[in-house]
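Task: sequence in, structure out. Protein: Alpha-1,4 glucan phosphorylase.
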Amino acid sequence: LGLDMEELEEIEEDAGLGNGGLGRLAACFLDSMATLGLAAYGYGIRYEYGIFNQKIRNGWQVEEADDWLRHGNPWEKARPEYMLPVHFYGRVEHGATGTKWVDTQVVLALPYDTPVPGYMNNTVNTMRLWSARAPNDFNLRDFNVGDYIQAVLDRNLAENISRVLYPNDNFFEGKELRLKQEYFVVAATLQDIIRRFKASKFGSTESVRTVFDSFPDQVAIQLNDTHPAMAIPELMRIFVDIEKLPWNKAWDITKQTFAYTNHTVLPEALERWPVDLVEKLLPRHLQIIYEINQRHLDHIASLFPNDVDRLRRMSLIEEEGTKRINMAHLCIVGSHAVNGVAKIHSEIVKTQVFKDFAVLEPEKFQNKTNGITPRRWLLLCNPGLAELIAEKIGEDYVRDLSQLTKLHEFVDDDLFIREVAKVKQENKVKFALYLEKEYKVKINPSSMFDVHVKRIHEYKRQLMNCLHIITMYNRIKRDPVKLFVPRTVIIGGKAAPGYHMAKMIIKLINAVAHVVNNDPIVGSKLKVIFLENYRVSLAEKVIPATDLSEQISTAGTEASGTGNMKFMLNGALTIGTMDGANVEMAEEAGEENLFIFGMRVEDVTELDREGYNAQEYYNQLPELKQAVDQIKGGFFSPEEPDLFKDVVNMLFHHDRFKVFADYEAYVKCQEKVSELYLNSKAWTKMVIRNIAAAGKFSSDRTIKEYARDIWHVEPSDLKIPPPNEPRDAVEDKTLNGTAA
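Result:
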């Protein structure tokens, strides 16, 4: 047709239906489940507006609506034949025939199916996303006799449920619409699952009543964080109120069905829904949660008599101030397996955050280290490197990433070293051209591309990177003729619209960039770019071009991270703390092949015990003092000298993430990075060692572990025949032993 594939790819909108790591992880998992031949479904909400588009206007973040469906979405298929009702509000009636939830408002859930193809195995799974629709008699059944027009306009109230994604990452906002969204996806999905179960041969019926004994053997539901936690009381409601199962049997089946993955230990991110809100929106579910809690606490009291503090700590209901439901506690009690997403995180979950629960049932707690799909994050985004690897070790590594260890044989192969460096250089030139086109700044492609892309959050410490940039700037100004390893520092990411400090951090980075980039003495030695509207499609461009990956969260705060893995697989070196999956990356590649610095979890704990005093570091480190004084004194904001007073005040008086405590170690570590970068061959050899050690971080490995340890299903390597091949021909081949 004379069309250019790359041009078409550029036109297509990202489906930005998640906030960051959590949503992207789910997408990688869907790819791996299809590639491993698992009969798995991904369920979620078909948001009309995804994560906002970020514009930078004179250094500030401005949000724009992400109207991603504007030109239609060719990959989805509406399935109105599977539309399902979801109930809200109403009241509970206890009668002779059992408990009924009545006088509810109904919203319809319309499913849209998107195919998820496995890699070269003729398997296609389904992602089913629900869209909210008002029933046709909405607001026309009752009272509303006269105002027909208003009744039709009010349909929007129901359909608002799937209108927009809440843009908070690692932060809980207890809004009614958000709770509606969480229950909406859960109620529609469970009805769908039960319909499918009943239609299968396992949902055998005895005189119209389904026998659910085999349900946990046929169905496994993984809760991706606590956002779908209402599934636990909802399944209980279906079993007890509708299917008339006795409580104990229903609870046993429910626990065997659910497993829960925890994704964060930050207290402000944990979901704690006010009881009053749940009582209004989902009155029956509140009763069921109370009953679950009563039996749970009775059990603990029998094991630990007179330990009232333990009961308070372990209750699903928090009584301090406004009564709230702790959704993580509900998930732990209602699941047969609980896991963290990296070794260090799972350890923190077990020994600190949910210690009381782990003491009770240690066998329930597991680790499943996150991974990324090598199809998107190597083959698709970095074809040059993928091809180079295939030339050396064959193409099978794409489905079995552990085969990358074979690259260790080529660490000293001069030709291979040159080829790896060449691919990286080509990627950098291509990205530099993109930056020049988009940002009108001239980039030196031989400079070190130092990249820090992720959501903007205090715990991720973009501020520490910013202090390092200022320090480098001051060193160049102090001694302009001294050898300086040129850097292009690229920082990108979105701040939640209501997160004041994160927005100030973006403004500060842009203010620093403005000074640095326009200083003739600095020239091409140092450039700073804030990458606007960071998203998956932009990650696919910047990651293959990166030399240095910044993974510098305070130890114990980043549950895993997955960007870290993408950079490692694409030939960047990592500067990072011993946090999240960085720990396992260092374990796989050897700590000497990463630039590890700063406090470990134990050091942070110790510093908390002593009391962190930011002022001490400021007084003792002249370069830190200079940088902070410049921010404070308006050097980067001459028109408004106290613009960054909130940032400076936070750093001195309530910095939970201890930026100053790691500053000195970070700057010293960065000096080591620059020193190695001068020796191109030694740098590239370290890159090869990293790529060779990246195999563990395939989401295929992660999913195999979930399948084996939690879902109890077997991945199938059987390649389903393509639809154009007659089935009997394939069976003949199998009999002759020629088909895999």
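The two ends are 36 Å apart (CA to CA).
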